[in-house]
Amino acid sequence: MLVSLIATKQMAEQIKKALADAGDIVFEHNGKLDSESVKEIFYSASRVSAEVLIVDLDIFYGKEIISALQGFRIARPNTRIIVIAPERKPGDEIISSIVGLGIYDIAAGEKESNWSEIIKNILLSPPATYAQAARWHTGQFLNASIQAKERVIIEERPAGIVTIAIAGTAHGIGCTHTALSISSFLARLGHSTAVIEDSQRPVFSFLCSVLKSKEGKAEGSYAVYGIDIFPLNESENNDNWNYDMLLKKIKAGQYEYVVRDLGVLDSARKREMYRADIAFVVASAAKWRWHEVIDRIDSEFSVIFPLASQNDAEEISFYAKIKGTALPYCSNPFAKENDSVFSKLLAPVLPSRRKKRILFGVF
Which SUPFAM superfamilies did the record assign (predicted)? Predict the structure, then answer.
């Protein structure tokens, strides 16, 4: 279970005890918030793909938390929200408004309560219904007569699961590193992402072992830095692609993006590249290796040149008439240094945004 947590430091410690065996925290803010930062923190949380958001109301005592929660609900309508309400009683205006947003998991109790046990029981139970939260709902809303205008980002997303294929012109060129970097970039944007190994030299099992990964959302996957990794099962001796064998599990995991590490490009992998929504070939920009690009890469594929300057990429792109992008050196594939490069490369398959004015505070 992937969890986002916004709580006071003391409460966060108790909640983490409840999550010890139940889930991983993918977003966390500890400490009090002011009226300026409350919406910013909730917006940041909405950019992360989590199954549950846990909010401690003691982080902020103003009414702005209502619109912050509503903004989160709009951005992440399928995320379960659990509100911790220490010392709150039925009739509380803040909680009444929260219930009015369709948030029914209200954890109430005294300050000294065993919050770890309370949260654990809620997580193990189905989401609460209005009947369970009705005692909190007075039917009154804060500032119901005030129509406050807010800007909300509406995203137009690609339909279905977007597949991204990565292949290299040779072993050791950086194909796996690039596949992991792209997957990590998508996860940082808040997208549910899986990376699948279909290369000639499998390494994902070893990688997951070194990184001490945990179980991912789908059976057979391992969670690493917010992405689910599906290693190639070398014990299975068959001619099927790992991707094809995992289709049911991919669907069950409800991934938005699937990145395929195809290994070294050959005729069979070139066909797989055409099956993807977008495909990239990782190649060297060194002049003595230009033949690998010219002889083996179709003009429809974009090329990524690790360790190359933009001048190098432009030179070979002009000579070979193939689109190429330089990827600056970054030793950690899970770092964000090259996010601006991936943002441009993946623009055709990323959600497009448009701003629309809506009214908060009107029910």
Answer: P-loop containing nucleoside triphosphate hydrolases (SSF52540)
pLDDT averaged per 10 residues, the chain (length 363) = 87 84 81 83 86 88 84 87 88 86 88 86 87 77 44 56 92 93 91 92 90 86 91 74 88 88 92 91 84 73 85 79 84 91 91 53 42
Domain of 76 in residue numbering reads as 2-144
Quick check: pTM over 0.70? Answer: no
Number of domains in the chain: 2
| Angle, alpha carbons 280-284-287 (nearest 5°) | 135
16-34 pLDDT, tens per residue? 888 876 678 888 888 888 8
| Burial of 128 from C-beta contacts in 10 A (0-12 / 13-18 / 19+) | middle
Burial of 229 (0-12, 13-18, 19+ CB in 10 A): buried
Is residue 127 located within the same domain as residue 174?
no
* Domain CATH number, residue 116: 3.40.50.2300
CA 13 to chain centre: 24
Rounded CA separation 285/174 (Å): 12
- Give the amino acid at 247: L
Write the pLDDT tens digit of every residue in 147-177.
444 444 455 655 578 999 999 999 999 999 9
Residue 47: inside a domain? yes
DSSP 135: G
Average pLDDT score, the chain: 83
Distance CA 318, CA 324 (A): 9
Same-domain check for residues 244 and 290: yes
Task: Report how far residue 33's alpha carbon sits from residue 42's, in angstroms, rounded to the nearest whole number.
Answer: 11
110 and 29 fall within a common domain:
yes
Two structure tokens written together for 195: 């990376």
Establish if 136 belongs to a structural domain: yes
Q: Is residue 155 part of a domain?
A: no
